[in-house]
Amino acid sequence: MTEAGDATRRVDLSTGPALVIDDGVLMRARGVPYGSADRFASPTPPAPWAEPRALIRRGPVCPQLPSRLAFVTGPVTDGLQRSEDCQVLSVTAPSGADGLPVMVWFHGGAYVSGGGESPNYDPDALVTEGRVVVVTVSYRLGIFGYCTPLGVDEDNLGLRDQLLALRWVHDNIAAFGGDPQRVTLFGQSAGGDSVYSLMLSEAADGIYSRAIIQSAPLGMRDGRDAMRTAMRAAAAESLSDTDPFAADVERLHLAQTRSLIAARRFGAISGLSYAPILGVDPLPAAHEVTARIAHVARSVDLFVGSTKLDAAPFVELNQNASRLRALGPVGKVGARTAAAAMTRRVFSGPAERLARSWRADGGRASTYRLDWSPRDAPLGACHCMDLPLLLGTPGAWSSAPMLGPHPDPLDHRLAIQIRRLWTRFAHDGVPGLGAEKFRLDAVR
How far is residue 54's CA from residue 316's CA, in Å, rounded to a whole number? Predict the structure, then answer.
């Protein structure tokens, strides 16, 4: 029995037997190790175990500094253990599931914050309403997972973690009633960017067939080489008197902060300073991306989109935002105009272009835009507004400032509609959606 009194059942995984929660409605496995890795090294599958292992408690998330978007989402990973041994995932499935589509979630957080074990990403409603199996993945972040210091030989470690998690899903998801031949990748912000990176990687071929990209900053992927070099040098200088392989977490986070400061002089792309690096295993070189996308489009269905004002929080973070606010109502209009322009440049425009090129290459793609926001929401339909409509419970998002001042601000009928769209796509791909474009707003 678990601490909450729920019944447990045994499942047999590739690494050994496990005890998971099964309350007759949902089956859950929490904190499942899909890999292990030394610091700054590629992950490997976990060591097998012989005795049943209890997988009933949330696992750790990567060590991280406070999120810069806490003023939008509220706390997301508070109360969760921090550990460099963060190659864990959680599985939620309907009890008695058999051969259901699988959806694998990659969280956002600019590759420096967040974690798949967060209650904000619990997929209970998605699982029960849509009859799918959902896997939420945690992976290495920041200096531990991307843009490692000079002198470290390996990189793209967070992406390699994600690839190993997908391999775990392929090998084990049938034990939870999932169909390993019907796997949909989905993620928001850096999680959506992760989905795009996984599509670029040949190592992921054949272990998924559909992809949902939510509010990914696809307009910030180019022209990053000089910034990355400056970041790695700044981190190495910060660690010049210590061995980065032996430094404590606080010292590495100081080096990460120094690298973020070094990135600022490169302008807008510094908003996603840490990110997967083209030309570094397992990603192709920049000149190969177009051909790679054309290849993937022929076998993977795509659903991609953004919110109406995805960029609004990032306009607020800009040092000029305080000057706009000082102008009162006129400044508010100016901020919304700037947010709309940045959204088109970074989020919605690149998403629409990706969908067009996908179709031109012979693939199937649909797009969406979320226009809804609660009454008096301070930033409108901003970045992350889709999350409480899709994952978590209303209680998990109750402290999210983006939702405004009113109790129970969610449009629950819209939430059901969005979850239905997402899970229909997981079941049947683009044909299951029935349209090439969706505008998501209040259900009247």
Answer: 44
- In this predicted structure, the answer to whether residue 2 has a pLDDT above a threshold of 70 is no
Average pLDDT on 142-161 reads 92
* pTM attached to this predicted model: 0.96
How far apart (Å, rounded) are the C-alpha atoms in residues 9 and 312?
A: 46
The answer to whether residues 184 and 209 touch, using CB atoms and an 8 Å cutoff, is: yes
pLDDT (average), residues 316-327? 74
Residues 211-243 pLDDT 10s: 999 999 999 998 999 999 999 999 999 999 999
Domain range annotation of the chain: 32-51+59-222+281-440
Mean pLDDT of the chain: 94
Please give the backbone phi and psi of residue 9, each rounded to the nearest 5 degrees, phi first.
-135, 160
**Are the CB atoms for 427 and 101 separated by under 8 Å?**
yes
* H or E segment to which residue 193 belongs: helix 190-200
The pairing of strands 301-307 and 26-33 is unpaired
pLDDT, tens digit, 9 for 90 and up, residues 94-142: 999 999 999 999 999 999 999 999 999 999 999 999 999 999 999 999 9
How many CB atoms neighbour CB 138 within 10 A? 32
Residue 271 φ then ψ, to 5°: -65, -20
CA-CA-CA-CA torsion sign (109, 115, 119, 122): positive
Identity of the amino acid at 164: L
- The amino acid occupying position 182 is R
CATH of range 32-51+59-222+281-440; options 3.40.50.1820, 3.30.420.40, 3.40.50.300, 3.40.50.1980? 3.40.50.1820
Asked, as a colleague might, if the bond just before 282 is cis with ω within 30 of 0, I would say: yes
- Mention every residue, 6+ apart, whose C-beta is less than 8 A from residue 113: 64, 65, 66, 67, 68, 76, 77, 141
| Sign of torsion over alpha carbons 55, 57, 58, 63 | negative
Contact (CB, 8 A) for 40 and 24: no
Q: Is the pLDDT of residue 164 over 60?
A: yes
